Every structure is written in C-alpha cells, then in structure tokens.
Amino acid sequence: MTEVRVETRGQALWLTIDREDRRNALDDAVLRELTTAVRGVGDRPGIRAVVITGAGAKVFCAGGNLKQDAEGDPFRVDPNRLDNPVADLLRAIEDCPVATIARVNGHALGGGFGLVCACDFAVAADHARLGTPEITLGLFPLMILPSILRVLSRRDATRLAVTGKPVSAAEAEAIGAVTRAVPAADLDAAVDALVADIAGGAPTAMRFGRRALNTIAEMPYLAGLEYAQRVLPLLARTDDAVEGFKAFNERRKPSWVTP
What angle is formed at CA 72 by the lines to CA 66 and CA 74, rounded to 5 degrees? Predict the structure, then answer.
C-alpha cells in the first residue's frame, strides 16, 4: 500500500505524504517512495515543479518514525546498506531537474523541517510551527544539518537545534526557513502562483541553472567564476536559449522547445 500520493496538477507534480494518522512521519517506505518519485521527474514531460506536502491541515511532517526496535533503538542502521534513506531523499531533491516546493500545510518538525529546508521554496500556512526537537530526545538533527545550514545562519540553526524549541511560520519566514507564510486558506493559491511563475521560464535554463546554483554555492568565489564562464556558453547554445533570443528580438512570448 502506497503512503505517498503522486498526482499531476497542471505543470506540477504533487507528492503528498499520506499518513495523517501518524502525523505524516517518515519511515523507510515513505522515504523510498518520495525518492523514487523525485528521481523520476525527468521522465515526465511538461512538469516544471515538484510540490511536497502532507495530508490534512495540521502536520506537514513530524519527522522520523520513532518506533523502537527490540533493543529500544529507532535509528539502528543496516550495516549492509551504504546510505541512509534520508540522505538518499535529500540527494534526489538536490539533483532534481525542476524546482522543488514544500507546501507546509502544518507543523514541520525534525526530518520534516529538514525536508522544508532542502526544497528550493517553502510556502507555509500561518498556523504551522517549524523546528528541530531532537535534542529533547537525546539526539541532534545531524542528517538534516547540511540542509538547514544552507538556508539559515549558523546562529539561527544553532538556536533551533540546541533549544529544541519550534518557531512560528512568521518567524520561520523572518529567518529564511520558509519563503512565505500565508493564511491557511490562501496556501494553495500561493503555491499555484509560485508554480505559474516558475513554469514561465525556459525548462533547459532551469535544469542547467539549478545544477549550477547548487554547485557554485559550494565553491570558493574564484572557482565559482571559473565554473560559470564554462557553463554559460553551453547554455546559450541550447534550443531554448536560441528560441528565447529570437522571441526577444521579435517582441513576442517564447515557445520553449524543451518539453
């Protein structure tokens, strides 16, 4: 039985964690389904964005499943497995050829907060609270720290991780954890408007640009300049760029070539 609903809505692929009775918690099955869906986006022509959300109106994702094993450990690792399934999902989001949007319909805690930070954009309902309560369980948000530190200052990341106290959607917007906080009734309209804005751009530029942005963000300044000057001429010769230049000179809206 699938626990992630996969739906095409216009030019967006919606992935809904469908475990409302379990606060949309992440377990191996959910992580695998999300990872598979995100990695398959490149095979879906016409998709310009991925929207990740949770079922219901109360919780986006409450983080990892804390059900203990026989030894009382909810995070025991299979020594034969090379990668943690959370790392697999975060890599898939990183490599996604289109923009990713977290539709934060409710509380986003622990791994759920990491998922919010991993996406390119996050639109949150104003009643949502976001944070990393792991320290109150004797843990630390290690698997999601790379994603958190990409969007928050070190001081804000430390405050959330060390105190374990969540913040409101409004404060999450103020510190950069979410792109925008809106009334719950306006959440879908805000997400749809963002998808429409994204969909207006050239698909090939999105794919080149997303990869370049993620790569340059990890580079020293001069290395980033070197990388950029090598990639730009390649991008300028793509079919979409040729069409974009032509449409600009003809003063019309471009018809992108890439599906």
Answer: 30
Cβ-based neighbours of 45, under 8 Å, separated by 6 or more? 259
Q: pLDDT tens-digit profile of 18-27?
A: 999 999 999 9
Q: Is the pLDDT of residue 98 over 50?
A: yes
Neighbours of 66 (CB within 10 A): 13
How far apart, in whole angstroms, are the C-alpha atoms of residue 41 and residue 97? 7
Domain boundaries, the chain: 4-199, 203-249
- CA angle centred on 106, ends 41 and 135, rounded to 5°: 95
Please check whether residue 70 is in contact with residue 35, taking contact to mean a CB–CB distance below 8 angstroms: no
- Counting every residue, how long is the chain? 259
Compute the distance between CA of residue 107 and CA of residue 23 in angstroms, rounded to an integer: 9
3-class DSSP state for residue 164? Answer: coil
Specify the amino acid at residue 164.
G
138: left (phi over 0), alpha (psi -120 to 50) or beta: left
**Topology, domain 4-199:** 2-enoyl-CoA Hydratase; Chain A, domain 1 (3.90.226)
Query: Residues 171-186: pLDDT tens digits?
Result: 999 999 999 999 999 9
What's the average model confidence in pLDDT over 77-97?
88
Is it the case that residue 76 has pLDDT exceeding 70?
A: no
State the DSSP code for 134.
G
Alpha helices in 102-220 (DSSP H): 111-118, 145-151, 154-163, 169-174, 187-199, 203-217
Model pLDDT, residue 13: 98
Give the containing element (helix H, strand E) for 147: helix 145-151
Strand partners, 129: 168
How does strand 49-54 pair with strand 12-17?
Answer: parallel
